[in-house]
Amino acid sequence: MAANIVAYSSSTGGGISAGELAATAPVQGAARSRAMGNFITWLPGARTGAGAFNASMMDNLARALRATRNPGGATATAVNTTLASFGVASVPGDLGSTGFAAVDANGAAAACAVTLNGPFGSGRTAGNTGVVLGATPSSQAGLASAFLAPVIATSNGAVALAGAGAGGPNGSAAAIGAVLEAAGGRELGKRGD
């Protein structure tokens, strides 16, 4: 399988070498935790672009929500402020990202968000392997991984909320906004007054 991926990459001018593929290994790191009200919120770790972006988004969104009672306006302000602080002037319309979260009957939770840096990644499958190749992170859609926002919030040691924002900075803001609203006492799934 690896040889087929490398051969396909080489035949199309790609940059995947056998050595790089062999050296690929999962990297684990601690999640970033933030206290909000009686919640402890777990976000992507500091080693990732998503960790830095989401921490900044959480700060900016909390500040904007305190300044206004309009969640939509606060979200727009926080997204614009956060993008500007990272020097991002524009974002592609579709970053090819998705996310999911689950809580089991025992109360254990998982949240995940993934991207191929564009719809269907590079749009190419590595030969007959069935492996869809991601778009290069150096493309404009390579920003996608910074906007992944898997979140888990706990209260008194139990999972209070699990979710994932993906697809761009608005998805991150939506996931983080849900945590902030729940930490503020609003029951999610019901419209505010």
Provide mean pLDDT, rounded.
87
Low-confidence stretches: none
End-to-end separation: 56 Å
Main beta sheet, described?
A: 4 strands, antiparallel
Rounded to an integer in angstroms, the radius of gyration calculated over CA atoms is 19 Å
Fraction in beta strands: 15-25%
Tell me the structural class: alpha+beta
Helix content, binned percent: 25-40%
> Which quaternary structure do these chains form?
single chain
Give the overall silhouette. Answer: globular
What is the overall number of helices?
A: 5
Strand order of the largest sheet: 1-2-5-6
Strand runs, count: 6
User: Order of SSEs, N→C?
Assistant: HHEEHHEEEEH
Describe this protein's structure:
The chain has 193 residues and is an alpha+beta fold. 34% of the residues lie in helices and 20% in strands. It is built from five helices and six strands; from the N terminus they run ααββααββββα. The chain has a four-stranded antiparallel beta sheet. A hairpin with a 5-residue loop joins β3 and β4 (109-115). α3 (49-67) packs across α4 (71-85), α3 (49-67) crosses α5 and α4 (71-85) crosses α5.
Layout of strands and helices, then pairs:
Layout: H1 2-11, H2 18-23, E1 32-36, E2 39-43, H3 49-67, H4 71-85, E3 97-103, E4 109-115, E5 149-155, E6 158-165, H5 169-183
Antiparallel strand pairs: 1-2, 2-5, 3-4, 5-6
Helix pairs in contact: 3-4, 3-5, 4-5
Notable features of this structure?
5 helices, four-stranded antiparallel β-sheet, 193 residues, 34% helix
Summarize the structure.
By secondary structure, this protein is an alpha+beta fold. The protein has five helices and six strands, in the order H-H-E-E-H-H-E-E-E-E-H. The model has no long low-confidence stretch (mean pLDDT 87).
